[in-house]
Specification:
This protein is α+β, with helices and mostly antiparallel strands and about 725 residues long. The chain has 28 helices and 16 strands. The site of magnesium ion (MG) has 3 residues, from loops.
Length: about 725
Amino acid sequence: MTMRTNWANESARTGRQAAVEKSGSVSDTFGCYTFGLDEMQRRLPRPIFEAIKATIASGEPLDMGFADEIAHAMKEWAVENGATHFTHWFQPLTGATAEKHDAFIEFSGGRTIERFSGNQLIQAEPDASSFPSGGIRSTFEARGYTAWDPTSPAFLIFNEHGATLTIPSVFVSYTGEALDKKTPLLRSMRELNRAARSTMALMGRPTSAVNATLGAEQEYFLVHRDLFVQRPDLEVTGRTVLGTTPPKGQQLDDNYFGTIDERALDFMGEVETEAWKLGIPAKTRHNEVAPHQYEVAPIFLPLNLSSDQNHLLMDLMRKVARRRDLAVLFHEKPFAGVNGSGKHNNWSLSTAEGRNLLDPGDSADEHVEFLYFLCAVLRGVHARAELLRASIASAGNDHRLGANEAPPAIMSVFLGSRLTEILDTLLAGQSISAVADQVIQTGLEVLPQVKKDNTDRNRTSPFAFTGNKFEFRAVGSAQSNATPMAFLNVAVTEALDEMGERLKTRLDNGEDRNEAIFAVIKEVYADAKPIVFNGNGYSQDWVEEAARRGLPNHTTTPTALTAITSESSKALLARYGILQPHELDARYTVLLEKYNCMLDIEAVQMIRMAKTGVLPAAYSQQSVMADAYAKIAACGIEAAVQKDELSIYSGMIAETITAIDGVRQALSAAPDDEEAATKAEYQCATMIPAMDRLRTVCDALERRTDEDLWPFPNYHALLFQ
Ligand code: ADP
Ligand code: MG
């Protein structure tokens, strides 16, 4: 069934826009809906402003004695801009964001006033008992509370009647357990900052802070809302559980960077305009590989802020899509056989002075720093490959990793040939000092070429060096960046600490600093080299080669997630105070339950669509065929072909009925939900194959059934209209 409607349905837009419109150029309005540094400077006494600035720059804790004054200034600003409510905005383990609004309204001396106290700013206690905690909250009988994160500015979200002051927050239990995704991220940033600073000090170039930076490229599909609502699978599960691939999909490669569809451009423009006001520096937009697939990429920012903003941007995109009669799909694989969507996490390290430590730089000193930090990342990813793989595991990403245009499930690092050659030269090296001299003296010629070399982008790598940053490409489009980034931070922290110890020992032994640094670089590279892979990650050869190198290859979520609770991961994350072993057990359970639940929902959805949509359509088609056969035969004409077709088609209906029953049986024979790990294995071994069988027969029927009888918009309609 196909349908066309008008995409840019202006009338669907509410008065909201008009109510909040601020005109002016981007530079005038950028961040106007955030309580950012400019606004704070204007409204706060200098010592308080300086304290907040220091907290943002270096992660130093803020003196909560300032809370009342900050809260007052924040409220004044918010109310002047039309705010009526405030909310703590946090990131529970669901992977989405959560908020509970309270009005500023209070009674005082018989009058109604607007009040917002320091306590309300710092802390709130949502009734959050329904958020997943993996058993932590009941075990410890601990209530959850949200606490203001001063490093991420508060912002305003408008509705037709005003606005809500939205305060980025962490979500923790009274006994200190993290109940969210943001707390471990902040802790990992603190540790990475510490480790990187002591590295810089050992290198003789001390700095007051090293902050991780993130630029998150977000891929997504846009489909017409009228079609979307006729696909209950898309609405409920985020992906099409049935649907046959169109004759022309993306084979011609003519969509990537193609002219942007006007309807999509209108959508993007509206998203960007609102994003800028919220301080989200949306910069790049383009078509992606598949039809109706796009990407938006903001300019990079400090990691925590950028991670928050990605959530905000996704929310904004959902809202704008609705207003414009579109639906935005963030699922990693909404359409089988078509390119999936990722969220490329561009990550680097920036000093307080603004030096990007993963930029080769211009001076000999910078080259040395660069190589050292580069090797720390290699070591981190090599040593903690399984943890990083676990951080991106989800039912959705399982469809994407290793499929069309997506990196494989094997963690490896793409360095590019030039950089690999430099490191190999170092490793093969004559005496270390000779190599060091070579690199340092010819540094200006050698290293800057690294950047140019990276034009040969490797799309098949899950983790690629791209000239002055790493790009963790395997992260799924629907996922929060917080966990992948937290685990990456910890992996690199561990590497820096270990390397720092070696360096320190050498320096204490009186070795020349540069010689010592290069010695460590060489040792670390020798160990971590198996993680470097510049070839085609899609090839079967790589799967075999990776196995020979001893690199793990977890192709499904249940096996990938086991790394979270391994003894070694628990020791690592506890050592750095990121998450304690029982918290990791809890997270493991939450993630498995989410996986199991997603598959259950998909299975039920599939059965329903097959029974109430596919079969009735197939019976209609069958009856048309039977009529045709009977009429032809009644005329005394040979109708063997029609009879064959009818019997093949009838056979397919029978297979569909059997396959429906297969999924139904798989559902009823499933292990108990409480046995999350056993059930997850069952989902992989039994449920997914049963669903695959059902899909195969339904899709075969779709190819033989009159399009007008088919009950769901097909791939052609979804992807080309
Ligand atoms: P691509 O060719 O992958 O699109 P871009 O240069 O456009 O590369 O950058 C992609 C993303 O990487 C953007 O979000 C950009 O801001 C971000 N980025 C650039 N430099 C850094 C950095 N030092 N740290 C983190 N992200 C960065
Ligand atoms: Mg990129």
